[in-house]
Design goal:
Blueprint (H helix, E strand, L loop, with lengths): L16 E3 L4 H9 L2 H13 L6 E12 L4 H5 L9 E4 L5 E6 L6 E3 L2 E3 L20 E2 L7 E5 L4 E3 L2 E15 L8 H25 L4 E2 L16 E2 L2 H10 L2 H18 L23 H4 L7
Antiparallel strand pairs: 1-2, 2-10, 3-9, 4-8, 4-10, 5-10, 6-7, 6-9, 11-12
């Protein structure tokens, strides 16, 4: 059913979807066409990682439906979606496979902030729109990307767009330690700058320094709340401008994608996790038992 957004599987960014494993027919079909082997093979070629080091974190089928369609206007109980806001996935690698025929919908595609205003200089039919959206030319085509790139689902203006989406985990032996953490910290700083500046502009309040200990000792003339020096205020506001934040965000994304994958010579051996022995446990045995991860 495409009538309700899923608030349990994807809490932060709810989508109209279902897990592939919930559909017996789809699971069987994907096994028949060797879907996992083929998609992992493509990811392996593009990102230079062994297929044995790839695994699914999530695999689901999602629907984007134009909000102005007749079905949505007549049935107000339907909770469809026509787009998905910019976000980052929990996986290092992600992909989207188009299932609908291009003539069944208008708009849509996987949109990337980094591709906004980018141009495709190839002689082939362009799949890149001016807004930064990748629109495959036919059903069955896949868009592969890092899940850490800021991306979303571009708005569908007519019809219905159905896709398979996969979040793919990469074994830690391939990744440079600390690279993702550093990027996440920088993105967090940008989010804080953007939030506080937006709040200041909306509420029309002034910046103040409320702790005198952070003022220079020489010439310190207040012991409580002081107006922020104009030079410091100007610096904070400049760093909070959308274009400045976007530039910092794109630099961080670029640095992450260049640094996070270790050269093959520096990758360690893959450690196979050993599963413990499975035992049947009664409700009485479970009483007071704590399971650690």
């Amino acid at each position: 059913s495409w009538d309700k957004q899923d608030a349990t599987r994807h809490v932060s960014y709810q989508t109209v979807d279902f897990a592939v494993e919930e559909s017996v027919d789809m699971t069987k079909y994907l096994q028949e066409i060797s879907f996992q082997e083929r998609i992992f093979g493509l990811l392996s070629d593009e990102y230079d990682v062994d297929t044995e080091d790839l695994s699914f974190l999530d695999l689901f089928c999602a629907s984007y439906e134009a909000s102005g369609d007749d079905d949505n206007q007549t049935n107000h109980n339907r909770e469809t979606m026509d787009r998905l806001d910019f976000h980052r996935d929990g996986s290092l690698l992600s992909f989207t496979v188009l299932l609908s025929k291009p003539e069944d919908f208008e708009g849509g595609g996987t949109i990337f902030d980094a591709l906004r205003d980018a141009t495709d200089e190839s002689d082939q039919q362009s799949i890149l729109t001016a807004s930064g959206s990748i629109q495959p030319i036919d059903a069955g085509y896949a868009t592969l990307h890092s899940g850490k790139l800021l991306h979303g689902g571009d708005v569908v203006t007519k019809g219905q767009r159905i896709v398979i989406v996969g979040f793919v985990d990469v074994d830690l032996r391939n990744m440079r330690e600390g690279a993702l953490g550093s990027a996440a910290k920088e993105w967090g700083r940008n989010d804080v700058r953007e939030f506080w500046n937006r709040r200041r502009l909306q509420q029309k309040v002034s910046w103040n320094i409320s702790n005198w200990r952070y003022l220079p000792k020489k010439g310190r003339s207040c012991l409580a709340k002081c107006a922020m020096p104009s030079s410091l205020l100007e610096s904070i506001e400049n760093r909070s401008q959308p274009d400045v934040i976007r530039e910092r965000r794109l630099r961080t994304e670029d640095r992450l994608l260049r640094d996070i994958m270790l050269p093959r010579a520096e990758r360690g051996e893959k450690i196979e996790e050993e599963l413990g022995e499975w035992r049947e446990v009664s409700p009485e045995d479970m009483d007071g038992l704590m399971i650690g991860w």
